[in-house]
Amino acid sequence: MLDMKKKAGYTLIELLLAMGIMVLLIGISILSYYNYDRQNSLTLSAEQIKSFLNKNVYHAQSSTTDLGFGSIPTATVLEYNSSNNAFEIKKVDSNGAAYSSEKVYDSYEISSNISVAVHFNNSSGTSTRLMFSSPDGNITNNPSSIVLTSNNYIATVNINPNEVTITKNY
Q1: Residue 141, domain member (yes or no)
Q2: 4 occurs within a structural domain
Q3: Residue of 33, 45, 37, 19 whose CA lies nearest to 108
Q4: Total domain count, the chain
Q5: Is cis: bond before 135, omega within 30 of 0?
Q6: In terms of residue numbers, what domain contains 114?
Q7: What's the pLDDT tens digit per position in 81-130?
Q8: For a tag site, which of 59, 126, 131, 153 has the least CB within 10 Å?
Q9: 3-state helix/strand/coil string of 48-102
Q10: pTM of whole model > 0.85?
């Protein structure tokens, strides 16, 4: 009779099956991390835009311009600059007309993997500017929104005269 000795170890099929399961789990975890990173980036951008809007209120509340014959009230605008995918705070006169040399007080650049759609509503339709009046810092536009999109994820910054809220769709 043949002497069958029991050998310790794994067969090739068992090893391939274990490796296949590991590859599948690694693939799922990489996709989950990628989705988490996109959602986190979108949420962070929406929160920073909300903070940027509050900063614009502060600039509007402290805005006056000395033109040599006394200080006149001014306003600030939040303007979306699509060429560099950034929001900018600028000072304008109280009617919204730009000064000859608009000064950008601050800017916030959106990540390049996020698409931006701006819906600033005013009495004459839509605009790329959201105006904040001086000295109270109130938003003079009608309810407006900023929609941020990354892949299938959407975050909307809703801008109302009394509050700014964020809604997420992911």
Answers
A1: yes
A2: no
A3: 45
A4: 1
A5: yes
A6: 15-169
A7: 888 888 888 777 655 555 555 677 788 898 888 999 988 876 655 567 77
A8: 126
A9: HHHHHHHHHHHHHHCCEEECCCCEEEEEEEEEEECCCCEEEEEEEECCCCECCCC
A10: no
